[in-house]
Design goal:
The chain is of the alpha+beta class. It contains eight helices and 24 strands. It is an enzyme of class 5 (isomerase).
């Protein structure tokens, strides 16, 4: 576990105060256009959907933790930083004032660390209201000039793809073994993932990926935290002034590109006993995890079909009213891993993932998002994503996973995983 100030700044453990200033910003420019060029990829931060959300850059503070207690340690660190902060906030909305971005590894035994990042500059927008936040350890903080739109990013060049730790053949074998284990009664569902490595001839600019994803997948939250970049359709949890919401996705079918055929496929997905069963597991796990923190909860009786450009999902939006002061990160920790990314029963399914998957997911399928000093925030599941290599910024590892149940067919699951890799593969294209 470590607490790191920005380069050249004194350690926050030595006593300096975090100074924060938020002012209104009237610009209508796209949020992602503000992300500056020439920055290391791990200093570019994003949580944007349909033109609203937050982007940040620079580093005021960072935190890392590993192991079973990674969520609790991150929460404790954030409470201490928030307690020390001196904040002047002229906007007073969730996401203004002191804010951190974060991402967490899926597994407690991952070699990857959990990360919280407090940027030095944040630009946000909500319901048409924009703002600028600056954060510093310098007590003489002066407000920066209004940020300017950055130059357009260059596309990746000469991108080549190669199998990662889990090839398509390996994945099909793992799915077949999982179906056997399900048939033997070990679990009802297990989510298995695979990886794909992309290498370009020069460092990959995450701003290119973010813009492509935002343009093509408007129903997703486009994120970037410490080199993890993606567009997730699944909101693990949002806490917004006492209202808690979660979007659950489970059950997937690939689109054909033919509108009439896709409508028929959507109808078949909504009637599929295999997919409805998988979806019910996921919704139940979310509702049970949120219940201790809620005074009331609305869980729709049936899912709807969420249409994305490459696939369609069964989706359910769960809404609840908070009954305690649990932060959005505490709620995310209580939900992780949900049945949507782990399986059912979850504990045994996660053990089975460790036995069958043969790779470290890192922060793929872990919580990713942001939180403010009041505990409000939004955390998605890091799906449809890739991790830029810390040592070689011209390389990125892409991930995709599928829920395996008794009726799963290995070749069909390979095809579904291919479909889920399309967003990141397309984002790397230069056309």
């Amino acid at each position: 576990m470590s607490t790191l100030p920005a380069p050249g700044a004194p350690s926050p453990a030595a006593g300096p105060t975090v100074v924060v200033r938020t002012v209104p910003l009237g610009s209508e420019d796209p949020l992602l256009a503000y992300l500056p060029s020439g920055r290391p990829h791990d200093e570019l931060l994003s949580w944007v959907r349909r033109g609203e959300g937050l982007v940040g850059w620079g580093t005021a503070l960072t935190f890392e933790s590993r192991g079973q207690d990674r969520f609790a340690e991150a929460e404790a660190w954030w409470r201490e930083v928030s307690h020390r902060a001196v904040v002047r906030d002229d906007v007073q909305r969730p996401g203004t004032g002191l804010v951190c971005f974060g991402s967490f590894p899926f597994a407690s035994d991952s070699a990857e660390s959990a990360r919280l990042v407090v940027p030095s500059t944040i630009v946000g927008r909500r319901d048409g209201q924009g703002w600028l936040t600056t954060i510093s350890l310098d007590p003489q903080l002066t407000l920066l000039e209004n940020p300017s739109v950055a130059s357009d990013p260059e596309p990746p060049r000469d991108v080549a793809f190669a199998d990662g730790d889990v090839s398509p053949a390996d994945y099909a074998h793992a799915v077949a073994e999982a179906v056997k284990r399900i048939g033997a009664g070990e679990v009802d569902k297990v989510v298995l993932a695979r990886d794909l490595v992309a290498t370009a001839s020069a460092p990959i600019d995450p701003r290119w990926l973010l813009r492509r994803l935002a343009d093509r997948y408007e129903n997703t939250w486009v994120f970037s935290v410490a080199g993890l970049v993606g567009a997730t359709p699944e909101l693990l949890v949002r806490r917004d002034q006492g209202l808690i919401t979660s979007r659950v996705l489970a059950g997937t079918i690939r689109r054909t590109g033919d509108d009439a055929k896709d409508l028929a496929l959507a109808a078949s997905l909504a009637r599929s006993s295999k997919d409805l069963e998988e979806h019910e597991y996921a919704v139940r796990s979310v509702a049970e995890a949120l219940a201790p923190h809620c005074s009331s909860m609305n869980v729709p009786e049936a899912p709807f079909v969420l249409h994305l450009p490459n696939v369609m999902h069964l989706a359910t939006d769960v809404a609840a009213v908070s009954v305690d002061d649990a932060s959005s990160l505490t709620l995310a920790a209580s939900l992780h891993p949900s049945a949507a990314v782990g399986g059912t029963p979850t504990a045994r399914a996660v053990e089975l993932i460790g036995e069958l998957e043969h790779m470290d997911r890192g922060r793929y399928a872990g919580p990713v998002g942001w939180m403010d000093a009041h505990g409000d925030g939004a955390w998605g599941i890091a799906l449809r994503s890739g991790a830029l290599d810390a040592e070689d910024p011209s390389q990125i590892t892409l991930y995709a996973g599928c829920g395996i149940v008794a009726g799963s067919d290995p070749e069909s699951e390979v095809a579904e995983s291919d479909a889920k890799l399309i967003p990141m593969r397309d984002a790397l294209a230069s056309d």
